[in-house]
């Protein structure tokens, strides 16, 4: 989304996190929310992390979605450097299937808040949706896009009440 200044920053600790974090970006695109995305590592580029987080609000960001696996320090470290809402997405790890990431993000000390989403694709998708809802507090167009998305979700269920795979053929 290059037509407007980004309102959401989507960051991840490693390029290998992209297959999960692309779902946050897809939701933002679907809802018309301008965003930026980049790799910002808590461990390999801490100075970049601090610069990114400290300058986020003055660059116009309203919320940051941070995905991380393993020790998953990225969301908490970003939250320690900005007053913007930070949404943490635990990326599934090979060793512990993302449970390590989930616990690392969820167990923030009192006083540094990170909204923690589900592990993996569902968490990234919902992080994009939640970021859009936050932006929608001040942007009626985004709020209307979120409302339309939710109505679409409801209608899909109402239109397909029979759970059997062959139900449409009958």
Uncertain regions: pLDDT < 50 for 5+ in a row?
none
The biggest beta sheet reads: 5 strands, parallel
Could you tell me how far the N terminus lies from the C terminus, measured between alpha carbons in angstroms? Answer: 43 Å
Secondary structure tally: strands:
5
What structural class results from the helix and strand content? Answer: alpha/beta
Q: Estimate the mean pLDDT confidence.
A: 95
**Beta-strand percent range:** 5-15%
Q: H/E series, N to C?
A: EHEHEHEHEHH
Order of the strands making up the biggest sheet: 2-1-3-4-5
Helix content: 40-55%
Shape by Cα distribution:
globular
Cα-atom radius of gyration: 17 Å
Helical region count?
6
Short recap of the structure:
The chain is built from six helices and five strands. With 170 residues, it is α/β, with parallel strands linked by helices.
What does this structure look like?
The protein is an alpha/beta fold and 170 residues long. The protein contains 6 helices and 5 strands, in the order βαβαβαβαβαα. The protein has a 5-stranded parallel β-sheet with strand order 2-1-3-4-5. Helix 3 links the parallel strand 3 and strand 4. It starts with 7 loop residues before the first strand and ends in an 11-residue tail after the last helix.
How would the blueprint of this fold be written?
Layout: E1 8-12, H1 18-30, E2 35-39, H2 46-55, E3 63-69, H3 74-79, E4 86-91, H4 99-106, E5 115-116, H5 121-136, H6 140-159
Parallel strand pairs: 1-2, 1-3, 3-4, 4-5
Helix pairs in contact: 1-5, 5-6
